[in-house]
Design brief:
Largest sheet: 5 strands, parallel
Distance between the termini: 46 Å
Strand order of the largest sheet: 2-1-3-6-7
Number of strands: 7
Helix content: 40-55%
Number of helices: 8
Order of helices and strands: HHHHEHEHEEEHEEH
Radius of gyration: 21 Å
Length: 276
């Protein structure tokens, strides 16, 4: 028995199952959202669900070598809610649609064993030959020194570094380009360097911070790949985000970061040689 189509897995089956189950659990968590009469809070809750749908559709494009399963998942169910209804009514409609998306995703997970795995150029199964097999995205700010050092390390480890500014535009908007290039990567490294100055309204002194785009993209990869496949390197004395837990922080200062980073790449499933 097969899956009834020419669609095959584009990544290792175990990784595919892990990422799809993780996405399913994130979606299930929305079912416990509290009902509220606050229109602003409801709007944010609905946007969170819509974002989950978009991210999950993108994940399905990464997991499979065709867009067939992604299209089945994302076929519109409603996602246009009663404009004149109460906040609770709009959220209830959103959760009804969410249940449909969850059933579709659960169906994919249950059928996963029916899909053929990725095949290398030599004809044998290979996780590194699939989409994102040996590509790592580098998120960076204005300091190009650490970016170049990390890129050189990845090349020594026979991993392709993906730096957004080095990729051709091909008529894409910035966000389209970012999403396309990010979809090919199975690990992300965020470089937090002291490029900006800022402070809380409660503080008197300015502190160094990473660029806002770095924090945004760091959060994106945490949601898309999972915390275990995101690593943040920080340089110098700068304010680190207080609400990002569960990811690895490595100090770029000194020489030990190379080995620490290589170990994280290895533990995330990339085939690397630690004899740096």
């Amino acid at each position: 028995m097969d899956n009834g189509s020419q669609t095959s897995l584009a990544i290792d089956a175990a990784e595919a199952r892990s990422r799809l189950v993780e996405a399913y659990e994130r979606g299930k968590a929305f079912q416990s959202m509290p009902m509220t009469s606050d229109s602003s809070a409801t709007r944010m809750q609905i946007e969170d669900v819509r974002t989950w749908v978009d991210v999950t559709e993108h994940l399905l494009k990464v997991v499979f070598d065709t867009d067939e399963e992604a299209k089945k998942f994302s076929t519109m169910v409603r996602m246009s809610f009663s404009l004149d209804g109460s906040p609770k009514t709009r959220l209830r409609e959103c959760l009804e649609d969410l249940n449909i998306y969850l059933r579709r995703l659960r169906s994919v997970i249950e059928r996963l064993d029916l899909f053929k795995g990725p095949v290398s150029a030599q004809g044998s199964p290979s996780s590194d030959s699939a989409v994102g097999g040996k590509k790592v995205f580098i998120v960076h700010g204005h300091d190009e020194g650490p970016m170049a050092s990390v890129a050189r390390l990845l090349e020594r480890l026979e991993i392709e570094p993906v730096i957004l500014s080095e990729q051709t535009n091909r008529g894409r908007t910035i966000i389209e380009k970012f999403e396309d290039e990010a979809s090919d990567c199975r690990f992300a490294i965020a470089l937090l360097t002291p490029d900006d100055l800022g402070r809380s309204v409660k503080d008197a002194e300015l502190r160094h911070r990473a660029r806002q785009n770095v924090i945004l993209e760091l959060g994106y990869f945490m949601a898309r790949l999972g915390r275990g496949k995101v690593c943040a390197l920080h340089k110098g004395d700068l304010e680190l985000p207080s609400d990002i837990s569960g990811i690895l922080w490595i100090s770029y200062d000194g020489s030990g970061w190379r080995l620490e980073l290589a170990k994280e790449l290895r533990d995330a499933g990339l085939n690397v040689d630690l004899n740096l």
